[in-house]
Amino acid sequence: MQSIIFSFFDSAELATAIAKYCHYEIGEITLRSFPDEETHLKINSNIKDRNVIFVANLVRPNDKILPLLFAAETARNLGAKSIALVAPYLPYMRQDKQFSVGEGITAKYFATIISNYFDSLITVDPHLHRLHSLSEIYQIPTFTLHAADLIADWIKNNVTKPLVIGPDRESGQWAEEVAQKVQAPFVVLEKNRKSDYLVEISIPHLEKYKDYTPVLVDDIISTAKTMIETIKQLNKAELLPPICIGIHAVFSGNAYEALLQAGAAKVITCNTIRHTSNGVDLAEQMAKEIKKINL
Ligand code: R5P
Question: Which of 136, 165, 212, 270 has the fewest C-beta atoms under 10 angstroms from its C-beta?
Fold first, then answer.
């Protein structure tokens, strides 16, 4: 029987686009809170013996996870053949190690919870820094898509003479791949994060790039401090106002506005998290992957 797609938490646009490409049915689920804020949910579509796909925007995940797991359990009880989670932005990937005694390794714990409720996971450019692959922490098959090709296409179509910049060593992996595809020069900067909101960036001599458009590329923009500090340094070096590209538009608080105010010429993100800055559409790529793995 044909697979069926359910959308969770502001994912309707993406889920509908995927369903259209794959010719899958969109499932109907009602999720609401009781007055005491506990969750009531009801799956209204027939899912017995069908492959079920949940598309979920999991940015700011804490309030979403319990309803999501309840929905997965409900789907299981209703006889779903398999349940795949499409989480284009995969949260809880940054605390992948104990930096000081007593800290929880939440990337690992989150992976275990998801692995207990879903049969597979599809995501886009997870923040793999010290981990090499999701299989190190997830116990289910995982499928990872990369936004580099489409980001490179966006740069080719919109920027003349780009200089691709990775604001820190971690972002280097994404920025370098994009730079190669665009065939543009590439530099990676040094970052020293002193706290959540305090970041120092040092840049090398960039005089020879004064007539280039700097294009900052990073996987996540959260507080935007990484990009804002980079812009300050680029200004000091008298480079042109940069275009800031992030894969995942996490944007805590007023980070997006602050980034524009800091002097970004443009802010572009992928639609892994719905946001006004979305300029790179990954729906078709996700749909193709879902088809390929035969869901
Ligand atoms: C670093 O670990 C990531 O690649 C990003 O640079 C980081 O998440 C950006 O965070 P923020 O926007 O809070 O500076």
Answer: 136
Q: How far does Cα 119 stand from its chain's mean position?
A: 20
Counting ligand 1 atoms within 8 A of each CB, the residue from 198, 219, 250, 259 with the most, and so the one to mutate, is 219
Q: How many CB atoms lie within 10 A of CB 260?
A: 15
Residue with the nearest Cα to atom 5 of ligand 1? 220
pLDDT in tens, the chain (295 residues): 789 999 999 999 999 999 999 999 999 999 999 999 999 999 999 999 999 999 999 999 999 999 999 999 999 999 999 999 999 999 999 999 999 999 999 999 999 999 999 999 999 999 998 999 999 999 999 999 999 999 999 999 999 999 999 998 888 888 889 999 999 999 998 788 888 878 788 878 888 899 999 999 999 999 999 999 999 999 999 999 999 999 999 999 999 999 999 999 999 999 999 999 999 999 999 999 999 887 7
CA-proximal residue: ligand 1, atom 7 (nearest)? 220
Which residues form ligand 1's pocket by a CB distance below 6 Å?
A: 168, 170-171, 199, 218-226
| pTM summary value | 0.93
Radius of gyration of the chain, Cα coordinates, nearest whole angstrom: 20
- Residue 4 pairs in a beta bridge with 25, 52
Residue 168 Cα, ligand 1 centroid: separation in angstroms?
Answer: 9
From start to end of 134-252, where are the E strands? 142-145, 162-166, 186-188, 190-193, 199-202, 213-220, 243-248
Residue 237 CA, ligand 1 centroid: distance in Å: 22
Ligand 1 center to 226 CA (angstroms)? 6
Assign residue 251 a region (left: φ > 0; alpha: ψ between -120 and 50; beta: otherwise).
left
Which residue's CA is the closest to the ligand 1 atom numbered 4?
171
Could you tell me if 229 and 264 are in contact, meaning their C-beta atoms sit under 8 angstroms apart?
no
